[in-house]
Amino acid sequence: MDLSEAQKPDVAPATASAYLDPNYWDRRFEQEEHYEWFKDYSYFRHLILQYVKPNSAVLEVGCGNSQLSEELYRDGITELTCIDLSSIAVEKMKQRLLSKGYKEIKVLEADMLDLPFGDECFDVVVEKGTMDVLFVDSGDPWNPEPATVSKVMAMLEGIQRVLKPHGIFISITFGQPHFRRPFFNAAAFTWSVEWRTFGDGFHYFFYILKKGERASDDAEHAAKIDMPSINLFHEELDSEDYLFRTDLDEL
């Protein structure tokens, strides 16, 4: 084992439901400098740059200690705003970005369920693994608990509100289309829904939701791509990402 790997703090929670505790994230961000949920930027760069342009005003929801904003900045996207609920994550992100000279990226402490922005102010909103946290104790994935539904809908309603007309919401997730489409295609939303996949062994989902572009029959006939089989390689099983697919409280 590489020495740097051996010295990394053990930040994985004892139970999956701990991901819902803001105190867990504060403790984690105090110890951990960087972690990428659902693969790093190189795996989906070819996808995201189709929709995020140099003049795009971009909001990243739940930035944590990811380097996504830095990668986008290096690709010429400079009007970036990152939010996270953890004040510790926000302060450490600010310091890291300033140390690299990325002074244009804004980092704010904010709740993704109550976005503190005016209407129609972003061209693109990106979330990477953030919405998945809301599902860790959702119960039956085919019929989630009402509390989960309420939180997910609050998040999505806020995102649609802050998107400009024809703005794009990008969701990078474990959530398969048959579980996400009931939310994305809810009557409250006007966006069209597409998805792509990326990754090795296990495929992650890259959703593209375009505000104001839903066809009348989109709710019944969302764009389809062949579903990949779930085939986890050893490195995927070792990854903490796998906890999002496992109800540890029942093991």
TrEMBL record:
Gene3D superfamilies: Vaccinia Virus protein VP39. It catalyses: N(6),N(6)-dimethyl-L-lysyl-[protein] + S-adenosyl-L-methionine = N(6),N(6),N(6)-trimethyl-L-lysyl-[protein] + S-adenosyl-L-homocysteine + H(+). It comes from the Eukaryota. InterPro entries: Lys/N-term_MeTrsfase_sf, Methyltranfer_dom, SAM-dependent_MTases_sf. Coiled coil: none annotated. GO terms for biological process: methylation. Transmembrane segments: none annotated. The keyword Translocase does not apply. Residues 53-175 form the Methyltransferase domain. The keyword S-adenosyl-L-methionine applies. Pfam families: Methyltransf_31 (PF13847). One of its GO terms (molecular function) is methyltransferase activity. Belongs to the methyltransferase superfamily. Protein-lysine methyltransferase that efficiently catalyzes three successive methylations on 'Lys-36' in eukaryotic translation elongation factor 1 alpha (EEF1A1 or EEF1A2). This is EEF1A lysine methyltransferase 4. It comes from Sesamum indicum (Oriental sesame). The lineage of its organism: Eukaryota, Viridiplantae, Streptophyta, Embryophyta, Tracheophyta. The gene is LOC105169602.
